[in-house]
Amino acid sequence: MKWVGGMCEATTALKGVRKDSAKDLKEIRHPDKEAGESADFLAISYISATSAEVDAAELDLEQLGRSGVPAADGLLVAWRKKLKSVGPELDDISPGDALDDAEGTAGKFDRLIQTLTPPEPDLPALAKKDPQLAAARERAKKS
Fold it and tell me: What share of the chain is helix, strand, coil (3-state, %, to 5)?
């Protein structure tokens, strides 16, 4: 159950990052003039905060051990590969890059964030095929 809870927590966080990223990008493209925040400031904040969230989810996934369910372990490996492939590209974008081109830099960053979709089959699909995994997932949802 702990493994499923950790997987759910990390993947839910990444789903939230993708959703928030799209919202943040929209805000960067159309900053609220009355709030007094510039596109540059918003982009710098966005890149810094989003990078930290992705790093935290990646660390959480790295700390998960084997689940004992081969398909679930395969999902974990696929998530780790995806994050390892996108991570260096995200790291190449510095928050300071937004000072030269806030919208362009944030847009490039968002395009990378949007690639962090669950590998197939995802955990819900795997749980449908494995009763033990399904039970663990239900227990994790309740706790």
Answer: 80, 0, 20
Q: How confident is the model at residue 2 (pLDDT cuts 50, 70, 90)?
A: confident
Rounded to a whole number of angstroms, the distance between the first and last alpha carbons of the chain is: 10
Res. 136: pLDDT tops 90:
no
Continuous segment of H or E residues that includes residue 21: helix 2-29
Rounded CA gap, 94 and 91, in Å?
Answer: 7
b/e 84-94 (16+ beta carbons within 10 angstroms → b): eebbeebeebe
Name every residue whose Cβ is closer than 8 Å to that of residue 7 and which is 6 or more positions away in sequence. 61, 64, 67, 72, 75, 76, 123
